[in-house]
């Protein structure tokens, strides 16, 4: 049928079908047909009613038949050329369009964040779709779907305010003392003070002043069971069951207790795997165990380290798994930093644990930079043990009491299976005061306690955990992903920063928390940090050349992030 049609008819039909929605096309052809009939009447007024040739039809009737045929042909053809506007009406839900932009989404599951995000896989003008280079982030999705803005607005100054206005968690900032005239981005080192703490501590001091020793068993928070007020809340923050949580000591001393229990060197299995540049305290703890156990091996023979490939700062999961496989018969324990203090890389705890368990290797993590930062699932990921401090993202104050996790499956282990540093607070509560000399540990992580905890420490932690309960760790993580995504996006967009800085932290949101580590390439890092400080931006630095910036969802805003990037840009523009 095609080859009999006039090319003009084909082209005009194609154009009309591309431009008009189907509903408008039929009206268009009827108008064209009527216009042609009217034009014939005007041009040939004398011939219009005459009979054509030998037939008994007038010219007008013949014209009407021809034009009707023309309209029907055009309508048939319209089915062959799909209109852009028609696809708009039946828009598949993985595609978003506005006047200038077409974005196509692909659903990706972020198992560690639980949530499913749709990631834009290409972006461009409707007729020249191009791969999207830097729009692979949940922030873009949030913008398109929640704020209904074109993604290019992300770089405009009013955007940060729009994000803050849309933030369901904006109420939490006011629950903290935020230093005046400062943009504080240092929750990775020390969290801010909850406003509720002062009254809590004052009540505690008043109670102590008024009732003395009776305070152990009286008042709102009887000191004898003070940790009970924290355990459930802490369990929710790190994805654990209450039986798996201990509130005690400090991070490094908890790591020592856990190594005593879980590091069980034998003649053949005595090695410990740790990352190449761990926080020094972790390495000190491990090497001191090698010496104190008198296992007749040097730390060099015991400690295996896995690092990033040359030229990279990031350790690949595959390299960790391969190292475990390589030393599978000699490894006793894998002990890694869940979020690396320097690079901000978040390891795949679940994959590492699963892999090591195949070879009966115990797996533990230092969660100093992960607790309160990432919505951990320590129970579900089957981690054997973990420890963390509470003064960073958990805002309990400098040097405060720490957390410890021991998986439920070890809850009833005997002292022989999991030796614990005995102490009366870890002893079964009912007989704690019978002063028996036989140590019977409490079930679960509580059995790792030694001494009665500092009540001021516990209340300090409680004031922050109450805020976590109000906000919810999943919602906080969701905001954190957007905040940090925004920071990275803005940093990458500043032409003044090109060649001046390099971002170390993984770009994949699954593999990082809120912290972004930036390497200062040409300038003196210490001077850069001082300049930021003088401009009211508080970050921190790690030798030799890294600045750490941690937008913290509890008290940082999108406007804070915008301001920090402006100040960083000014420092590097000098
Ligand atoms: C990863 C890591 N591990 C261990 C520590 C030491 O913690 P603490 O002094 O509370 O024992 C820190 C920070 O101080 C840390 O960042
Ligand atoms: N507790 C401190 C006391 C003084 C100075 C720093 C700290 C830190 O916590 C540093 C942090 N652990 C880090 O990731 O570098």
From TrEMBL:
Gene3D superfamilies: Aspartate Aminotransferase, domain 1, Type I PLP-dependent aspartate aminotransferase-like (Major domain). One of its GO terms (biological process) is 'de novo' NAD+ biosynthetic process from L-tryptophan. It catalyses: 3-hydroxy-L-kynurenine + H2O = 3-hydroxyanthranilate + L-alanine + H(+); L-kynurenine + H2O = anthranilate + L-alanine + H(+). GO terms for molecular function: kynureninase activity; pyridoxal phosphate binding. Its cofactor is pyridoxal 5'-phosphate. Keywords: Cytoplasm, Hydrolase, Pyridine nucleotide biosynthesis, Pyridoxal phosphate. The keyword Secreted does not apply. It is an enzyme of class 3 (hydrolase). Its main location: cytoplasm. Its EC number is 3.7.1.3. One of its GO terms (cellular component) is cytoplasm. Pathway: Amino-acid degradation; L-kynurenine degradation; L-alanine and anthranilate from L-kynurenine: step 1/1; Cofactor biosynthesis; NAD(+) biosynthesis; quinolinate from L-kynurenine: step 2/3. Pyridoxal 5'-phosphate binds at residues 251-252, 279-282, 366, 369, 391, 424, 452. It is found in: Cytoplasm. InterPro entries: Kynureninase, PyrdxlP-dep_Trfase, PyrdxlP-dep_Trfase_major, PyrdxlP-dep_Trfase_small. Belongs to the kynureninase family. Catalyzes the cleavage of L-kynurenine (L-Kyn) and L-3-hydroxykynurenine (L-3OHKyn) into anthranilic acid (AA) and 3-hydroxyanthranilic acid (3-OHAA), respectively. PANTHER family: KYNURENINASE. HAMAP family: Kynureninase. Homodimer. This is Kynureninase. The gene is KYNU.
């Amino acid at each position: 049928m095609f080859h009999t049609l006039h090319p003009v008819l084909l082209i005009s039909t194609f154009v009309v079908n591309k431009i008009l929605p189907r509903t408008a096309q039929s009206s268009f052809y009827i108008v064209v047909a009527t216009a042609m009939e009217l034009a014939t009447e005007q041009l040939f007024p004398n011939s219009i009613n005459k009979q054509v040739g030998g037939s008994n039809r007038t010219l007008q009737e013949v014209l009407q038949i021809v034009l009707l045929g023309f309209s029907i042909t055009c309508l048939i053809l319209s089915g062959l050329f799909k209109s852009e506007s028609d696809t708009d009406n039946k828009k598949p839900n993985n595609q978003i369009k506005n006047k200038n932009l077409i974005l196509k989404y692909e659903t990706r599951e972020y198992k560690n964040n639980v949530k499913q995000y749709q990631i834009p896989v290409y972006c461009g003008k409707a007729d020249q779709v191009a791969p999207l280079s830097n729009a692979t982030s949940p922030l873009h999705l949030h913008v398109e779907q929640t704020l209904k803005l074109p993604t290019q607005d992300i770089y405009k100054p009013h955007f940060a305010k729009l994000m803050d206005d849309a933030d369901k968690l904006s109420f939490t900032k006011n629950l903290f003392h935020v230093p005046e005239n400062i943009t504080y981005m240092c929750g990775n080192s020390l969290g801010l003070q909850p406003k509720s703490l002062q009254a809590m501590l004052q009540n505690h001091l008043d109670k102590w002043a008024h009732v003395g020793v009776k305070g152990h068993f009286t008042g709102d928070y009887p000191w004898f069971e003070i940790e009970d007020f924290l355990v459930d809340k802490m369990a929710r923050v790190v994805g654990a069951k209450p039986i798996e949580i201990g509130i005690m000591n400090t991070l490094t001393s908890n790591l020592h207790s856990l190594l005593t229990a879980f590091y069980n060197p034998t003649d053949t299995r005595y090695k410990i795997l740790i990352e190449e540049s761990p926080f020094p305290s972790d390495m000190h703890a491990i090497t001191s165990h090698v010496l104190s156990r008198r296992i007749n091996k040097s730390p060099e023979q015991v400690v295996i380290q896995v690092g990033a490939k040359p030229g990279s700062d990031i350790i690949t999961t595959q390299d960790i798994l391969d190292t475990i496989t390589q030393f599978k018969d000699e490894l006793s324990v894998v002990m890694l930093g869940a979020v690396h203090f320097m690079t901000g890389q978040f390891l795949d705890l679940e994959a590492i644990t699963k892999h090591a368990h195949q070879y009966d290797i115990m797996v533990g993590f230092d969660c100093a930079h992960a607790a309160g930062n990432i919505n951990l699932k320590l129970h579900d990921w089957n981690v054997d043990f973990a420890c963390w401090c509470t003064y960073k993202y958990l805002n309990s104050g400098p040097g405060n009491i720490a957390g410890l996790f021991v998986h439920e499956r070890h809850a009833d282990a005997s002292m022989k299976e999991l030796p614990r540093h005995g102490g009366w607070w870890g002893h079964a509560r009912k007989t704690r005061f019978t002063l028996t000399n036989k140590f019977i540990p409490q079930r679960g992580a509580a059995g790792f306690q030694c001494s009665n905890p500092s009540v001021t420490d516990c209340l300090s932690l409680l004031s922050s955990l109450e805020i976590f309960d109000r906000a919810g760790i999943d919602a906080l993580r969701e905001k954190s992903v957007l905040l940090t995504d925004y920071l990275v996006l803005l940093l990458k967009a500043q032409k003044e920063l090109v060649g001046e800085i390099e971002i170390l932290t993984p770009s994949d949101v699954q593999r990082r928390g809120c912290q972004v580590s930036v390497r200062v390439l040409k300038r003196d890092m210490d001077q850069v940090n001082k300049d930021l400080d003088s401009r009211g931006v508080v970050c921190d630095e790690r030798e030799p050349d890294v600045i750490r910036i941690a937008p913290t969802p509890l008290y940082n805003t999108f406007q804070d992030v915008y301001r920090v990037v402006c100040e960083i840009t000014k420092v590097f523009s000098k």
